[in-house]
Amino acid sequence: xxxxxxxxxxxxxxxxxxxxxxxxxxxxxxxxxxxxxxxxxxxxxxxxxxxxxxxxxxxxxxxxxxxxxxxxxxxxxxxxxxxxxxxxxxxxxxxxxxxxxxxxxxxxxxxxxxxxxxxxxxxxxxxxxxxxxxxxxxxxxxxxxxxxxxxxxxxxxxxxxxxxxxxxxxxxxxxxxxxxxxxxxxxxxxxxxxxxxxxxxxxxxxxxxxxxxxxxxxxxxxxxxxxxxxxxxxxxxxxxxxxxxxxxxxxxxxxxxxxxxxxxxxxxxxxxxxxxxxxxxxxxxxxxxxxxxxxxxxxxxxxxxxxxxxxxxxxxxxxx
Length: 320
Fold this sequence. Notes:
The protein is globular. 41% of the residues are buried. 31% of the residues lie in helices and 28% in strands. The two termini are 23 Å apart. The protein has two domains: 3-135, Gcn5-related N-acetyltransferase (GNAT) (Aminopeptidase, 3-Layer(aba) Sandwich); 144-313, Aminopeptidase (3-Layer(aba) Sandwich), CATH 3.40.630.30. It has a ten-stranded mixed β-sheet with strand order 4-5-7-16-8-13-12-11-10-9. The protein has a four-stranded antiparallel β-sheet with strand order 1-2-3-6, with helices on both faces. By secondary structure, the protein is an alpha+beta fold. It has helices spanning 12-22, 32-35, 89-106, 125-133, 160-170, 184-196, 206-215, 262-276, 297-304; strands at residues 3-6, 48-52, 55-60, 62-65, 68-71, 81-82, 109-112, 137-147, 175-178, 220-227, 230-240, 245-253, 281-283, 288-289, 294-295, 309-319.
């Protein structure tokens, strides 16, 4: 009934059209246009299509890592990405059974990381249920998001601490806007220092961020806060138009200027921009570490001051 076809370069446009126009949970993060910013050879690509009578019903971006199938390491989320026309109880069971049988023949283990529910255009509960029903163990990380409405200033839903800090920043006449190309290096240096304080490094190089900015000028945004032309803080945002969600990806503050409360001003202004553009969600990303085992309570509490509500990112694992 169903056929598995490995991904190959000549199928790039077909893959991307399906992800962006025909699926319930595809985003630009699963397109080859996005994944191809990675240099050739960085990953062992093991992505594949699932088709029925020549019609794509699902795509699964992934890598072969020591004989394990892992949702594509070049993206925050992998798959499976499911067709709108095949997202029903009976059909999803058949699709996941087909995927499961294929993976069992080719790999010793698998780890799937589907698109989080807040970035999908339909509830993901059916996919979640089906994966668990097929014997995949579910592991979650705690994320959160702030509801937005064009008619309501997001600032009104912020808590007292946030509102106090934002009002202090307003007295400094800070300005908010796009980070220009001329300041991307400053942005990146602040990002590196911020990550180093937590013993990590940015996933992307400066050259890769410039490449992504050029590839996705509408979907990948860089916003900053300045005082009298001096950079204070910046962020990288993923704009998921189909799901009406802004997702905060990177924060790059000048920590020597914390007294300005620039980061608070940056987040409030980014939420305002999202709301005015008709977006309905501001995603804050995970507040957990070690695969979800440890909750950074201070980080999560900070996000809650901006009116954030809980949600989870799930991954599914199975040993064959």
